[in-house]
Amino acid sequence: MHAVILAGGKGVRLRPYTTALPKPLVPIGDQHAILEIVLRQLSSAGFTGCTLAIGHLGEIIRAYVGDGSQWGMAVDYATEESPLGTMGPLLNLKDRLPEDFLVMNGDILTDLDYADVLRRHRASGGPLTIATYARKVHIDFGVLTTDASKVVAFTEKPSMDYRVSMGVYGLSRATLDGYTPGLPLGFDELVLDLLRAQNPPHAYEFDGYWLDIGRPDDYDRANAEFTSRKSLLLKGA
């Protein structure tokens, strides 16, 4: 099994932590970087190959990870010279990738079974499988529904339930056909194109632990929770 880890972003929302370090290498706990945790999890799940799509401070990531042998994996690299969006880096890699592979952001902490996501994707026969997570959004205001300048409904401070993308995907290489290498391609654009083509992605629903480390508050939470969750996140690794 093969995974592509997207690790080329600048991590602007996580500054000042990312001023001198790429976001996937910010430390979690006393001994680990986020990317190390992810690589150990992938290796434990049976992934033998991984491509790191790097850009901003990518030479630091390359020096840290090396060839991946310390985790029992073969790691190679794809350098992003300019921002290409979530899926754009894959277009330049397409000839190097197997028919079905995992794609994920390099800045998430989760106990998701990555191998099962890829297995389910293969079994579905679909173009894309999106790992999803339930989120509840609380609205701190009274919500009005209007029609022709009249209020027709009112809900006081409602909660709304959504399923959001976890930043982990099963993808088929053929899904990238028709897109131009070197041009940006976002996850949103790919999903909308698939919906327009009536070839919808599949959803992999997950209700375990997931934390997207996008902001300083998220990073502080990750460090506060890591000690108590280390055995969960690194089980068998």
TrEMBL record:
InterPro entries membership: Mannose-1P_guanyltransferase (IPR050486), NTP_transferase_dom (IPR005835), Nucleotide-diphossugar_trans (IPR029044)
SUPFAM superfamilies per record: Nucleotide-diphospho-sugar transferases
Start and end residues of each Nucleotidyl transferase domain: 3-227
Pfam families membership: NTP_transferase
Protein name stated in the entry: Nucleoside-diphosphate-sugar pyrophosphorylase
